[in-house]
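Technical note accompanying the year-one report. For the benefit of new consortium partners, we illustrate the data format agreed upon in the data management plan: each record pairs a sequence with a structure-token string. No post-processing was applied to the example shown here.
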Amino acid sequence: MRKIILIFFAFIFSVALFSQSTKELVLTIDHTIASAPLTSSSIGVNNLGNQFNFSRLEYYMGDIQVIYDNDSVFNYPEVVLIDALDAATTNLYLGSQSLDSVTAVRFAIGVGTSLNHLDPSIYSSQSPLAPKSPSMHWGWSAGYRFIAAEGMGSSSLNQGFELHGLGDVNYAMQTISTSGVAVGTDTLEIKLVANYDALTQGIAVGQGVISHGESGSARQSLVNMNNHVFSSSEGNAALSDKELEHLDFVIYPNPANGSFWLTVPLGSQIEVINVLGQKIEHRTAEQTKERFVMNKTGVYIVILRQGKSVSTERVIIR
């Protein structure tokens, strides 16, 4: 009897052991707009009713994780640079893992803090973090552009817009429930759908907004990427790990003819520098609307500080 029991439990153990199988994990992202594959001629409409199209749409994806079995985690160690206009679908081979089932995928848009402030020249030319043209790097202090979205807006598509979002404070993980799709017997596809109509949600792209930095419309583009753009092939929406908090301010008009206004918190420190890093003006905000008069045309960076929070935006003077 004892021998029979031992044989029985050995059989049960072997069934449990071999119920798992090694799967090749592949992450796919279908790039869409207006429920169709994204191209440079595709026209989207955001929640403000603004029509737009993209001429450039690049972003980093990092800290990719696959959640499987009983909350086990498969980590993909690389940062990926995605060009959404390069192909209708991005296919990323993650690696192999012995598993029964997948329950979710997690990732962040951008470059994590440990890599965000390193010198891009240390990488081989094939690395997504190496210098690119057009550039995805803002500078050692600010780090990489997490997203660079550019195109034309308005009903006539004659208003250029640029959304370059960056900043450690805007780096956030999102989780999307999915069981994946079996391909043959040895591959599991984790299929995501990116709906880029939602990338410009709440952003007046029809008015030619230009926003580079950690706040304003650039930040909003990252909030949208973290909460509204991605879903699983089953239709499950993303759940962001945190609501991004930041020091916001508004520049208008931008581009400007000789002068511009800032809407800022009282008591904040405002600094304007040129592209050479030279300080043009510094003041403390004594009211919520501050006017700046610029004597020379060009591109300027506005830096806003309050407590430990720092935000930057670009303004063009014509």
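Partners are asked to follow this layout when depositing records. Residues 59 and 147 are 4 Å apart (CA to CA).
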